[in-house]
Amino acid sequence: ADVSCVDTSGKFMIPDVGNKNCAYVRNQDPDLCEGSGKVRTKCPATCGKCQDAHEDDHDQDEHEDHDNDDHGHDHTDEHLKMACDTSDELFIEHIDEIESFCAGIIGNYSKVCPYKCLQPMQVMKLYYEQTCPGMIKNKSFAFVEVRKVCDLEDPHHPPPADPADQQDGIEILPVSCADTSGKFMIPDVGKKNCAYVRNQDPDLCEGSGKVRTKCPATCGKCQD
């Protein structure tokens, strides 16, 4: 992987959020990746920014002699680096990404495959098919695979979001991808706005369909 493709291990200051580390971003508030360049720089693995880290690294481009290295696609070889062992660090990282970024598919309220969900899914598909055939598939991976929302056959292009796909009684994503600006009533919480959800309680996105509808950008529900 690229030299710069390792999350910073310690805590760092995130504006409006406080002193946090990459595990916080990954588990509690993955939207920070979109909102803050600093978070993307500090947590490239969490934010799925690895495949383009080479753009910052041209000077010290010490790639392992990939003469024909098709820059930007190195993440598709990640399955070759993983051991056939569920405690392997890269294995855990990819399953974490699937559980974070494919949450809408796993939770049955989205039929759109975000690119950040597609990437680890493709790596794990190759891993199960080529690196470790016969290994029991992780249940989150298997669930997303069965839904057939993500195009796992084409590792380099996210599938286009087909609006016709979103009519199956699954929540239809708002066309406009802007958060509602005013406050609205959230059950058990009170009158709040999307900034509150983003900064104070991002879990409301998971718990409330109303929050997802009112704050599609905050909740990462826009079609990428």
Structure overview:
- The structure is a single chain.
- The protein has helices at residues 22-28, 32-35, 37-42, 89-101, 103-106, 115-131, 139-147, 194-200, 204-207, 209-214; strands at 12-14, 18-20, 184-186, 190-192.
- A two-stranded antiparallel ribbon has the order 1-2. Strands 3-4 form a two-stranded antiparallel sheet.
- The protein is globular, with a radius of gyration of 18 Å.
- Helix 4 (89-101) packs antiparallel against helix 6.
- The protein contains ten helices and four strands; from the N terminus they run E-E-H-H-H-H-H-H-H-E-E-H-H-H.
- The protein has 224 residues and is mainly alpha-helical.
Alpha-carbon Rg, integer: 18 Å
Kindly name the structural category. Answer: mainly alpha
End-to-end distance: 25 Å
Name the average pLDDT: 78
Q: Helix fraction?
A: 25-40%
Provide the low-confidence segments as ranges. Answer: 53-73, 163-175
Given the structure, what is the number of helices?
10
Strand proportion: 5-15%
Topology as H/E string? EEHHHHHHHEEHHH
Spatial strand sequence of the major β-sheet: 1-2
